[in-house]
Amino acid sequence: MCGIVGVVGNTNATDILIQGLEKLEYRGYDSAGIFVLGGAENHLVKAVGRIAELSAKTAGVEGTTGIGHTRWATHGVPNYENAHPHQSTSGRFTLVHNGVIENYEELKAEYLSDIKFLSETDTEVIVQLIEHFSNEGLSTEEAFTKVVTLLHGSYALGLLDEQDKDTIYVAKNKSPLLVGVGEGFNVIASDALA
After folding, report:
1. Phi then psi dihedrals of residue 99, to 5 deg
2. Inter-residue contact 95 to 127 (CB < 8 Å)
3. Mean pLDDT throughout 96-104?
4. Predicted model pTM
5. Looking at the predicted structure, is the pLDDT value of residue 43 above 80?
């Protein structure tokens, strides 16, 4: 079962994400990844296998906002391309998703026939749809809300927009997602342990 963690407003987002993902290991997974919005540079780090392998690749990854994910393959084989987080074509939007979208192929055919997909996942369809509607003039919140209304299935979503480094957009249907409010930072997670 997949797991999600996210943090906004903490100076050490990478450590919080890795620690949160470690707390989700009990769920089982085949790959993991994080995305951290940094000062001058954003960082997407993914690994097939254990959290320890992901952690070893995060030296120098710093930022105040990030999302992370442990994946149990439902669409596509366990590999780097299918590991979360997934990004839109421009790289503006980055998304993690826990659940299964039943109508992702229909959405892909209806709205995204001109997009070259990098993965075999339903999650990449979601993030590409958000960019699609953003490119049509909707704000990030409006595009995110519109996409959520189109999804059939279960989901817990965490979305980052590189143009808004202080916000994680979240939505859930059937899949678990908790929001935690701390002093000077907020978190999201698939369960209380994380």
Report:
1. 135, -165
2. yes
3. 95
4. 0.95
5. yes
